[in-house]
Write a structure and sequence with these properties.
It contains 9 helices and 7 strands; from the N terminus they run αβαβαβαβαβαβαααβ. The longest helix is centred in the middle third of the chain and has 29 residues. The chain starts with a helix and ends in a 6-residue tail after the last strand. Nicotinamide-adenine-dinucleotide (NAD) binds next to helix 2, helix 5 and helix 7.
C-alpha cells in the first residue's frame, strides 16, 4: 500500500475524512441538504447550515456532532450570500467546502408557466448558485484550495413541465464547468451532481401516477435517499478528490440509462 492510500483509507475508516474542514451547505434545513450536512459533520467537518427557513436550519445544525451553526439565508439575495460567506470565514478563518444545494421547483407546462414561476426558479436554483460561488471563490482563490459541489438535477437534460427548473439546472452545469476552469489554477475543484428521483418533500408532492412512472425508470429499483447523494458530496469535498473537477455526476440509480 502506498503511504497516500494508507492515509486515505485510515481517514475513511475513522470518519476523519473532513476533519476540521469548514463547510457551508445551502438548503440544509431538510431533505438532501440535511442529509449532506449530517454526512459532512459525521466525517468531521464544521458545518454551517444555511436555509431560508431559519428554524429548520438551526434544528439541523444543533443536532450535528460536531454541532454546526444554523443561519438564515435566502440564496437569491446577493448581500445575504456575501454576508454568510464572510461570517463563516471571519469566525473560523477558513472556508474549505461550499455545497450549493438550495433549490425549489414551480412546475407547469411551458404554455401555462407564469413569469413568476420562471423568475422564482431561476433566482433560487441558478442565480443563488452564482451568488454563493462568487462569494466563496474569492476566499478559496486566495487560500489556494477549496471544494465546491453544486446540486443540479437529472432534469437539466429536459423534463416535461419543468422548463424553468431544467433551464436553471442546465445553467448550473455550465456555471460549474466554467468555475472549474477558472478556479483550477487555485486548486479549487468544482463539480455538479445530478440526482435522479430522491425521496424528499420536493418529490413527495408529485401525483402518485407520475411518481410510479418515475420510479419505474430507475434500474436499481428504488427511489434514492438523501444519504445516497450525501455520500458522493462528502467524497468530492474531501482531499481524496483533489484531481476531479468540472465533472457532471449522475446519482440516480441508473435513472438516465
Ligand atoms: P426540499 O424541498 O426537500 O429542500 C429544499 C431546501 O432548500 C429547504 O430546506 C428549503 O427551505 C431550502 N430553500 C428553498 N429556497 C431557498 C432559498 N431561497 N435560500 C435558501 N434555502 C432555500 O428539496 P430537496 O429534494 O432536498 O432538493 C435539494 C436540492 O436537490 C435542490 O436543488 C433540488 O433541485 C435538487 N434535486 C432534488 C431531487 C429530488 O428528487 N428530490 C432531484 C434532483 C435534484
Amino acid at each position: 500500500m502506498t503511504p497516500t492510500f494508507r492515509v486515505g483509507l485510515r481517514a475513511l475508516l475513522s470518519g476523519d475524512l473532513l476533519k476540521d474542514k469548514v463547510a457551508i451547505v445551502t438548503g440544509a434545513g431538510r431533505g438532501i441538504g440535511e442529509g449532506i450536512a449530517r454526512k459532512l459533520a459525521q466525517d468531521g467537518a464544521i458545518v454551517i447550515c444555511a436555509d431560508v427557513n431559519e428554524t429548520d436550519a438551526t434544528a439541523v445544525a444543533s443536532s450535528l456532532r460536531p454541532a454546526g451553526i444554523g443561519v438564515r439565508l435566502d440564496v437569491s439575495n446577493a448581500s445575504e450570500c456575501d454576508a454568510v460567506v464572510k461570517d463563516a470565514h471571519d469566525r473560523y478563518g477558513r472556508l474549505d467546502i461550499l455545497v450549493n444545494n438550495a433549490g425549489i421547483n414551480r412546475d407547469a407546462m411551458l404554455h401555462k408557466m407564469s413569469d413568476d414561476q420562471w423568475h422564482q426558479v431561476i433566482a433560487v436554483d441558478l442565480t443563488g448558485v452564482f451568488f454563493m460561488t462568487r462569494a466563496a471563490s474569492r476566499i478559496m482563490r486566495t487560500a489556494g484550495s477549496g471544494r465546491i459541489v453544486n446540486i443540479s438535477s437529472a432534469s437539466w437534460m429536459g423534463n416535461i413541465g419543468q422548463a424553468n427548473y431544467a433551464a436553471a439546472k442546465a445553467g448550473v452545469v455550465g456555471l460549474s464547468r466554467t468555475a472549474a476552469k477558472e478556479l483550477a489554477r487555485s486548486q479549487v475543484t468544482v463539480n455538479a451532481l445530478c440526482p435522479g428521483f430522491i425521496d424528499t418533500t420536493m418529490t413527495r408532492g408529485i401525483p402518485d401516477a407520475i411518481r410510479e412512472q418515475q420510479l419505474a425508470k430507475i434500474p436499481l429499483g428504488r427511489a434514492g435517499q438523501p444519504a445516497d447523494v450525501a455520500a458522493v458530496v462528502a467524497f468530492l469535498a474531501s482531499d481524496e478528490a483533489g484531481y476531479i473537477t468540472g465533472e457532471v455526476i449522475n446519482v440516480g440509480g441508473g435513472y438516465i440509462l
